[in-house]
């Protein structure tokens, strides 16, 4: 299959999946479900593009994308999870976090923006916070988009060279490849200590953007039962999207 044929096939598959997403949203609204989807990953792992494809044809009234900026002075003096609480979904809403409280276990840890005490407290309390949310009826879906070192380097260069992507650049980007090993260590610790039965991590191999986006949507759709769902598209590719397991850190499924 040539490149054009692959693009056409991917576009057709995306449209069909987005139709199912619209059906899912109707179900969420009717049933009053509270759906929270977290996207984490290294810089340039494809979080923006994946989220864009999910929400592209959903109702903006019942769907929100949350991407919080740098914490204010007041935020820094508050309970760590406090600034995310107002953004949690109400009944009938789907909320997608483009990065979340897991900043503390990633960029804050690697770049020294938090103390060792704050970091340890986060890894202890994050599972408790998520357990409370789950107990109160919030469906939590956590995706970690994983890319290789070479792919991250390529994408960051593309950002610097493309004037239409300048808004994505930040000082943190410059440190991303330099601190690759530090981010790997932080990622591994985060996954190991916050992967729980009520809020498990789902890994996404994201070097191929198109395949990652399609399979994240497929995976999201498998988590709900709703009318009109096309069951022929139920299962994502297990080589692209799979539940976190410690073995994946050594068997090549997760970038080292």
TrEMBL record:
SUPFAM superfamilies: P-loop containing nucleoside triphosphate hydrolases (SSF52540). Residues 6-225 form the Polyphosphate kinase-2-related domain. Pfam families: PPK2. The keyword Kinase applies. One of its GO terms (biological process) is ATP biosynthetic process. Its EC number is 2.7.4.-. Signal peptide: none annotated. It comes from the Bacteria. It is an enzyme of class 2 (transferase). It catalyses: [phosphate](n) + ATP = [phosphate](n+1) + ADP. GO terms for molecular function: polyphosphate kinase activity. Keywords: ATP synthesis, Kinase, Plasmid, Transferase. Coiled coil: none annotated. Homotetramer. Belongs to the polyphosphate kinase 2 (PPK2) family. Class I subfamily. Uses inorganic polyphosphate (polyP) as a donor to convert GDP to GTP or ADP to ATP. This is ADP/GDP-polyphosphate phosphotransferase. It comes from Ancylobacter polymorphus. The lineage of its organism: Bacteria, Pseudomonadati, Pseudomonadota, Alphaproteobacteria, Hyphomicrobiales. The gene is ppk2.
